[in-house]
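WARN no homologs supplied; continuing
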Amino acid sequence: MTLSNPIAFAFTAIIPIIIAFYLLKLRRKKLIVSSTFFWTEMVQDLQANVPFQKLRWNILLFLQLLIAVAIIAAMLDLNVKAALNEGQRTIIIIDTSASMQTRLDGGTRFSKAISDLRAYCSNLSHREQVLIIEAGEYAKLQLDFTSNLPAIQRALDSLKPRDAGSDLATAYEFARSRAREVDKPMIVVVSDFSGINEDLFSNPEYPLSFHDLSSSAENLAILDFNITGESRDDTGGNVNAFMIFRNFTATARTCPVEFYLDGKLVDVRSVTLDSGSKEGKLFRGIPYNPDSKSNGVLEAKLDINDDFQLDNIAYAIPPLTEGMTVLVVGENQFLINALSGVPGIRLFQIAQSQYIPGAGYDLTFFTGYAPNSLSPGSYVFFNPPNRDYLPCSVGEQVEYPRVTDWNDRHPMLRFVNPGSFNVFAAQKLTPKPGSLTLIDGNNTPLMVYGERGNLRTLVFPFSLNNSDLITRPTFPILIFNLVSFFRSHVRSGSGNLRTQGITSVWVDSDAETLKLIGDDGIELTFPVDAGHAFIDVDKVGIYTMKIDDGDDSDRILVANLFDEKESDVAARTSFSTTAGIGEIRRFDVQGEKRIWKWLAIVALLILTGEWYFYHRKGFGNIPKLLTG
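OK structure emitted
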């Protein structure tokens, strides 16, 4: 209990004043009467009111003292610890990302979150209302404000964890916007805070509480898996498997890597990882002999019993054709060398004067040049002149632009650190509506992507010779990512998807829709536009693509997590705010409640009782009632 107005103690001086009034001698008129026999009580009363005599029992004095105490207590503005649920509007944000499937207390973090929320909501008062927001790959309103407990329980039971990341920032902004619409809002974030932006919850606008489900957990993860170099010899077919691993534990680990084709074990290799290390490894000569009934999917599995199983399995299928055709227009040996190391492509180079639009290459790179017009296709520009078809306007030159931010979740920037290279001179870009800035700088964007129908263009506003990018380890990774991204837009697409983000898939058909059927039997339908479908899946696994065009042939797609932030499932004990380091508070909706109104009501009731007994019953009978 705390006091908000301790100066009110000064009013306790009223108590001795009230008592003093009952010690004062009453002023009475003197009258001559024939006898005092009938006035015994009056004589006693006269004697008792002599100053400084012992007081008789007087219920009026007792009630007036109670009124004074109640009024003084109300003026003190007492606060008592209590659950602040009366009339409150609680906005619950629940994280449904992949990392919530980490093992915890015999279940998972997600199952514990649902269990704790059910228990919490079952104790809400009838006045409190709850709103539930799902923070999955996209923020989604699961349940609007309601006090209906069965509806709240049904909404909680309908939530399922996704095999993707969570957009907790958008969910929190949505919660803040809804909080502005109601009185007494409180936001509760239920998450393990994996991959969270540390400044997200700094300086909260409304009361904010956290239910932190992060826990001590160990994990080894597969972060990438690609099949390259399919070949045949006397022993049968073979492929090379390129994989990236990450050890999130505090000790070095050696782990078997099992390879399966159509569910049958075909090979076992091994990988050794130091504590906290991330390494790429090429496994050569993996047996690959799919038959006519095979779906051609190669599965890789880490044979380890860690706390997060979802990233222990990855799927891959080889490219659908011999290779993707890539053309380089202009001279740049560094770019040629980087592209030569990308598997599964056929590389060509011509001079700028030899380029003819519509040559039919799957991907074209331009260095310091851009034709006046382009046919539909995929194009990458380094230091281009201004053209109408570009996703941005090209302006004057700027000196030493510095990287300030980048979209690290976009597939073109996977495992790329744009902050590791410098640009000495670049042209100022102004992105057009609908374009996407992937790398931003202090005075110009440094990487802008845009799509207009079947025309896909990517612009870097600098020459490779005006940057040290070509000398950095991130350069071949960037080129590999660019080819992999644009590969999904052509007939030679590999069919390897990620559960995070949208992927464009080529559809060689005039059909208007396609269906994806997961290995769990769930069907997803996507529209087809100009030969492309934009696919978004949130479950790891194997998918069969069916097209409604009368053709019975099916295509196989695979989806993997490959999200380093989600795989980092270690405990989060604190996060940074603008005020410094603050511990993440546990699920706690306790607070202090002001009770002066109730004390004022008590004083009013006592005053009413005083009036009733004095005017209707008489105080002379009260001592008899109290003593029986």
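The CA atoms of residues 256 and 270 lie 4 Å apart.
OK
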